[in-house]
Amino acid sequence: MPADQAPELGESKVIAPGYRADDFLAGLAARWDIPLGEPRLIDAPRGRKVWHFSGGVPRDGERRMAIAGVPTQQGDIILFSCMVKADQAKAGTFLEDCVDTGIPGWDAKGATAWLKTAKQQVDALYTKERRQVVSSLYVSAGTHAFLRRSGPTPESVGTYELSVSGGGIAESS
């Protein structure tokens, strides 16, 4: 659906106690040669401060592949995102690697099947609408994921952003 029609998801919570950035995300970053920065405290909406880390691989003067996340001060992951330009070689493979998360109880095969369908759906709608669009949700083990495709201009190929988060809507699904 167009992103401006997407429902609010609720406040994110820890994906799973003990699920840490230095586990899955460090391995993902190493496999894709993405240097991850150290977590730092940043300003967030509604006057809050949150811990945040990110890393990206620049190509031709722009960030073409990136990983970002919000951990607790203790390091447990609340949410993470994988971003990749839609025309990047192996963009789909990168996103598939991102949904193979290792979250305790997460159905990785189901997530991969969902991602393939979600990608087809957002691609079709993005091609038609040429504005930010989001997929349906994937919910497993108290965690949800969605795929967004956006671009700065109507002529842009856009960027995929796969977001995985604990809490909120996943708890009531």
Radius of gyration: 15 Å
Going by helix content, strand content and strand pairing, the class is alpha+beta
How do the SSEs run, as a string of H and E? EHEEEEHHEEEE
Termini Cα gap: 20 Å
Fraction of residues in H or I helices: 10-25%
Mean pLDDT metric: 84
Label the overall shape.
globular
| Number of DSSP strand runs | 9
Fold and architecture overview:
The protein is of the alpha+beta class. The chain is built from three helices and nine strands; from the N terminus they run βαββββααββββ. Strands 1, 2, 3, 4, 5, 6, 7, 8 and 9 form a nine-stranded antiparallel sheet that branches. The chain starts with 11 loop residues before the first strand and ends in a 6-residue tail after the last strand.
In short:
With 173 residues, the chain is an alpha+beta fold. 23% of the residues lie in helices and 35% in strands.
Secondary-structure blueprint:
Elements: E1 12-13, H1 24-31, E2 40-44, E3 48-59, E4 62-71, E5 77-85, H2 91-99, H3 108-129, E6 133-134, E7 138-140, E8 143-150, E9 159-167
Helix pairs in contact: 2-3
Keywords:
single chain; 173 residues; alpha+beta; nine-stranded antiparallel beta sheet; 3 helices; 9 strands; 35% strand
